[in-house]
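Bit of a strange request maybe. I'm writing a small parser for structure token strings and I need a real example to test against, not something I typed by hand. Could someone generate the tokens for this chain?
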Amino acid sequence: EVQLVESGGGLVQAGGSVRLSCAASGFTLDDYVIGWFRQAPGKEREGVSGISNKDGSTYYADSVKGRFTISKDNAKNTVYLQMNSLKPEDTGVYYCKAGLSFWGQGTQVTVSS
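Reply from user aminoacidic:
Good idea to test on real output. This should exercise your parser:
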């Protein structure tokens, strides 16, 4: 079965850290560009970070630059999003996406002030 499963979300205090995981099964993550997106309550889904499968180059939204780091472990077929210095405005459901249209189910991150 082809699946993308996010994990690692939870409740964290402002200033804290969380590491999200996006694990793939049924296909190879390294064959695709992988993106992390988030959706806050009442807002549209927005791109947070991405990593290229061609050269490993990375992308970060301005709002997370210097605080979030995307990485991948091909042996584990998993992409990570390390989130540091979290702010209440980072609260939302975080999704990973493989390629153009394959989404995981999301994981909730709540940052308390």
